[in-house]
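Lecture 7, part 2: worked example. A protein chain together with 4-methylsulfanylbenzoic acid.
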Amino acid sequence: MSGYPVSDLDPFCAEYFADPYPAQNALREAGPVVRLTRYNVWAVARYQEVYDVLNDWRTFSSARGVGLADFKKEKPWRVPSLLLEADPPLHDRTRKVLDEVLSPAAMRGLRARFAAAADRLVDNMLARGGFDAVTELAEAYPLEVFPDAVGMPRENRRHLLPYGNMAFNAFGPRNAYFEAAMRDAESVLAWVQAQTRRDALASGGFGAAVYEKADAGQLTQEEAGLVVRSILTAGVDTTVSGIGAAVYCLARFPDQFRKLRDSPNLARGAFEEAIRFESPVQTFFRTTTRSVELGGVPLEEGEKVLMFLGAANRDPRRWERPDEYDIERRNAGHVGFGYGIHQCVGQVLARLEGDCVLRALASKAASIEITGPIERRFNNTMRGLASLPVTIRAA
Ligand code: 4MI
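Predicted complex, written out as structure tokens:
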């Protein structure tokens, strides 16, 4: 007889989004693998099992979708991603293209521009005093620097926000968040699609670089368009939530901001710790390709496994004081960027953005004070705020 714990938790509802930590703790405590009866999927919320699933792509496939929908049984809402929703060998061919286009060397060439943009933005906010750290900083900064780096025009770049909001909702169930995000994004879908065309992308940017890889025979022209779509889908919402998380942490934990001001070189650690602490990408699914035992529980072939990345990043079995934001913590090994073959291909770019914003704040601001009620953004996959009213004082 093989027993396993069950839970009727809904990890895609407002109550959970508002405060996911008690439910995440209950899941971790219930056992290494828990059956979620509401969705008929398996859940892993402990670090060890999340790590094990992330590191075995042969057994825990991405090709049937990394959301709740099983692409073998349901038609995907869009043509599947050649990276996120693919297994080797297809995945490795497209991944190599983005590894090269987003290489650390390429990112180093962006630093001066990214740092100058962050300095300008923080100077503007200091002149204002009070502002919304989500809309006017965490959203404004990536929307300023990222589409430039891709080679996109200035106009309409805000359309990337509803597009990303929809994409990340689409990994969850077809609930009210998904439906609302779909309606919101409908009018920008054609525009986003058009931005993936070769003639829309300025030379020197990531987009043109992807098409040059197609010219070199590494992928087809059609595949190049889809890889550019991946850049546009993954590149904005994620860093918006990451930067928002970092500012929210530094505003809530002033001793940590003081430490950062004393040593601006801690900016990288402060950003990384915010990724661990808030885990902007909260969850992804895999689908089993064979029967397998996980955490002592036998799983059949073709089952969805929901990985709670945010819960793994706060698992007391893995982390000391997991619920403390500590910018000097040794947080290597967190799964906020995933792990294994699918680990975030844009992480160097994300860290560059985070580092530039936090360095600007560390060197220019004496304090960050929350001045009004925060608003949380509810999304099936992405954890973040819609509004964070703050006042910053000049140093
Ligand atoms: C983890 S965020 C993300 C990554 C890749 C894609 C979308 C979102 C994609 O479309 O390839």
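The mean pLDDT is 98. Residues 6-394 form a domain with the Cytochrome p450 fold (CATH 1.10.630.10). Keep this in mind for problem set question 3.
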